[in-house]
Amino acid sequence: MTKTVKGMLIFALVAFCASLTFPFVASALDNEAVFRGTVRVGRQVIPDVTVSIVDAAGTEVGSVVSGDDGKWAIPIPYVGEFTVQLMGPLPDGISIKEGASSEVVVVVEEVRTTSVGFQLQSEEQKTILEIPPTWERLLNRMVSGLKVGLLVALASIGLSLIFGVTGLVNFAHSEMVAFGAVIALVLESSMGLTGGLFPIAVFLAVVIGGFLGLFLEKGIFGPLRRKKMTNISLMVVSIGLAFLMRYLMLIYHGAEPETYESYKIQSGVSLGPIELPPKDYYIIAIAFITLVIVGILLQRTRLGTSMRAVSDNPALAESSGIDVNRTIMWVWIFGSALAGLGGIMIGLTQVVEWQMGEKILLLIFAAVTLGGLGTAYGAMVGGIAIGLASETSTFWLDNDLKFLIALAVLIVILLVRPQGILGVRERLG
Prior knowledge:
Blueprint: H1 3-19, H2 22-29, E1 33-38, E2 40-41, E3 44-45, E4 50-55, E5 60-65, E6 71-76, E7 80-88, E8 94-96, E9 103-108, E10 113-115, E11 120-122, H3 134-166, H4 173-191, H5 198-226, H6 231-253, E12 269-271, E13 274-276, H7 278-300, H8 302-312, H9 314-319, H10 324-349, H11 356-371, H12 376-393, H13 402-416
Helix pairs in contact: 1-6, 3-7, 3-8, 3-10, 3-11, 3-12, 4-5, 4-6, 4-10, 4-11, 5-10, 7-8, 7-10, 8-10, 11-12, 11-13, 12-13
């Protein structure tokens, strides 16, 4: 049996396992579309608020009162255009945001669950809009881009390290990032690790992420690599694994986006001309310190030396007394743990959902390619460049075009330097 045939058989097995999840997904969706949401202002839920849905003809399809947790759900028996109306009553001091509407139009084209939200504000959130000078707004965009870039870099390092020592392009890496965010959310809610205890949930999620990398190496990719399977076949396996992990997270996490309980809507804190929520300062600091520690570990430790040696020449490294398989195992553990930490940090800036990995996959690969395949430092530089280009571009262009600008920068740089910014002889820095 040829290696290609073996690879296709393994991919078929992975795909089959993924297909087993589809009945569970279908049963959860049933035969009706469902509109659901939570009436809230920040973290404050609002009960006893009536939500009504009418179709394009003005016929009421359903009406419900939000529960004690602010949640509501209305099934839709047929496809079409519907208007979701917030009927009220709202508590004193709570109102629709200026410029927003109490009605949301949604078009249903398939049977699925759709989240619907309304833009509400409290009296404390009403502030006078002051437009800062142009240079201040540009500076804040650049700082926001630095934050995004550091997070992309943090999520990308593992992919670059694994490619450097094994030659594998791991398409499941973005799902490993999402895995860390989901695990932290589950630990926080199930163990009550909120507020000051949330760092414990972060630590445990990172450790579990490391064990995930160990499992993938020892249970899947290591045995396949020892069977002399080509990197192309292993890449196909990683694609199947990505789909499997994605739908497993859909089953056990659900389709509705969530936020960490420890996260709260925060007012901006000024640091000179820079104004960011307090959590963003911590995210930037944690990501930066982590990247510095990674650089030190790669340069000043025996494991880092082993990684560089295996990346440059595995046969020579093994003849020099380096345990190649052990080094690869630690690269998987190290890379997966960093991916989990990156996922948690990304989850703090937005929402945690089962499609997180799919949404950031392109950015991760862009960062690794831009910085130089196989170099951890390249992933850092590439991630920061992608983040700065995407966020800073929103100062002049529409927000929907920011990733297009980032990819345009990627193309231009690769035309000038095909090997990437730091694509030099040493892959791992």
